[in-house]
Amino acid sequence: MSDGVLLIHAFPLDARMWEAQRIGSAVIAPDLPGFGMAPMAGDTLTMAIAARHCLAAADAAGLDRVVVCGLSMGGYVALELWRQAPERFAGLILANTRAGADSPEAAEGRRALAERLRTEGNVLAAAPPPLLAEGASQELQNRVKGWVADQSAAAIAAASLGMAERPDSTGDLAEITVPTLVITSDGDRLIAPELTTPMADQIPGARLEVLTGVGHLSNVEAAGRFTQLLRDHAGACGVTV
Q1: CATH fold for the domain made of 2-236
Q2: How far apart are CA 27 and CA 21, in angstroms?
């Protein structure tokens, strides 16, 4: 067994979003259940199910410990993974995500979206969430829109329901003992920086990086900067990629 990096993708995408960060054989980026090439895991993709799926991917790759990097929904899964198996962590990167649970109103919105998806199909294909900064290029917008359109309505619905019921992870932050990097971006229109940055104060010894001029998918819009942060943090955790 060896050490590596585990990348956990955002909603409603698949692991293709990490193409710029796949910088070595020890970097793995599984599709979460139902997304990309991965089979469904039931009508509700809880963060616990997703975390177990990621552990299985690390096992299959022969990785004993990993620097876990989760963006958006991937961050929710990363925090659940910490609760399940902290001994498997060499380090942690939480990007464009938050620790808190949904408000009752937000959770109801996710359940309503799931119902629409199941009755109308992939409604996000025509109207995806604002995953990029307002000034993102048309080429990049088209690429991300294509990724969204490729996902099944059932998978998106299952993940939406799973996020609606995810627990509040705020109380777990003080117990994180591995080197942690928190990344946000000033153009994030989905999870505002003020929802992400507090985690850097709540996790002991965590470091904060703010990427300027980019939106929610900071690893896609600022691929070079994000990849360097990933490489540097992995190195600080004793993992060479």
Answers
A1: Rossmann fold (3.40.50)
A2: 8
What is the spatial distance between Cα 60 and Cα 208, in angstroms, rounded to a whole number? 32
pLDDT at position 134, please?
93
CB 212 within 8 A of CB 183: no
Tens of pLDDT, residues 123-168: 999 999 999 999 999 999 999 999 999 999 999 999 999 999 999 9
Parse the chain into domains and list their residue ranges: 2-236
- Supply the pLDDT for residue 1: 67
Task: Give percent of the chain above pLDDT 90.
Answer: 98
Counted residue by residue, the chain has a size of 241
Q: Which residues of the chain have pLDDT under 50?
A: none
Do 206 and 116 touch, CB atoms closer than 8 A? no
CA distances from 27 to 4, 19, 103 (A): 6, 11, 34
Q: What is the pLDDT of residue 211?
A: 98
Torsion over CA: 104, 11, 112, 34 (sign) = negative
